[in-house]
Amino acid sequence: MGAAAQVLLVGLLFFGACLPVQAGRVDAADYQAFWLWGGVKPQPVLAQANTLYVLQGQIDGPRRAGEPSARMLAQNPATPRLSKDIELWLVYRAHTLDWNEDIHALLLAQLKRWQRAGNRVTGVQIDFDAQTLRLDRYATFLEDLRQRLPAHYRLSITGLLDWASNADPAALNRLGGVVDEVVMQTYQGRHSIAGYQRYLPSIGRLQLPFRIGLIQNGEWQPPDYLQSSPWFRGYVVFLLNPSDSVSTTPSNPP
Predict the structure, then answer these.
(1) Distance CA 47, CA 19 (A)
(2) Rg (CA), the chain
(3) What are the helix (H) ranges across the chain?
(4) Global confidence as pTM
(5) Does the residue 8 lie in any domain?
(6) Are strands 154-160 and 232-238 parallel, antiparallel or unpaired?
(7) What is the pLDDT of residues 66-99, one digit of tens each?
(8) In Å, how far are 72, 126, 155 from 57, measured between CA atoms?
(9) Is residue 45 domain-resident?
(10) Would you indicate the residue range of the signal peptide (predicted)?
(11) Is residue 232 part of a domain?
């Protein structure tokens, strides 16, 4: 075997070793990027993590007429001591985009606090279920948030499967000009979405950096063509407590 062929073979073997096991169920031990949500206890697999998305707050709108505008509810999952090598994203679950100045100030303060503690804070992720036909409004919100963030922080968002198939390409391109990545969720709540496979060809054609979000112990069969996309950045697994049951939801994504 020639030297060039040996180099190619070694490269292929290394690439194959980095891919998740081709299995029907999501085994968290096969991955290195995880969501850590409120109420979910740390698991041994976190010792192998290179990327963590840690929930920090939930932004809700007024519950009734006459109440003040949106407020942030603290969400502090039990987080193990982090290695300085771990990329840390602070996650904010948003039920409204009508943020006030207090919310922005609190978000920036939390970034500084994690940074001062010696963590490698990569950036912020917004988890908001934006309707496919209203992505332009979401892009406007994200553009404003991007301007408020210090330049060295990156911006990530979660995405719905429906975006890739039915969103206006111009709206998706606009998002790509603002965010550093989108994590497309193949689950809803604590369940894999039935028929997620039919959305994957469209996701594979996205022209912005993307990851695939999986649910621990959920269903997943990676298509071969996904790895060939120059925009594909890997997987993120949403961790669950052992007592949480997982199945495939019969409903379609919203």
Answers:
(1) 18
(2) 19
(3) 3-18, 101-116, 135-148, 161-166, 169-176, 200-204
(4) 0.85
(5) no
(6) unpaired
(7) 666 788 988 876 666 777 889 999 999 999 999 9
(8) 6, 10, 16
(9) yes
(10) 1-23
(11) yes
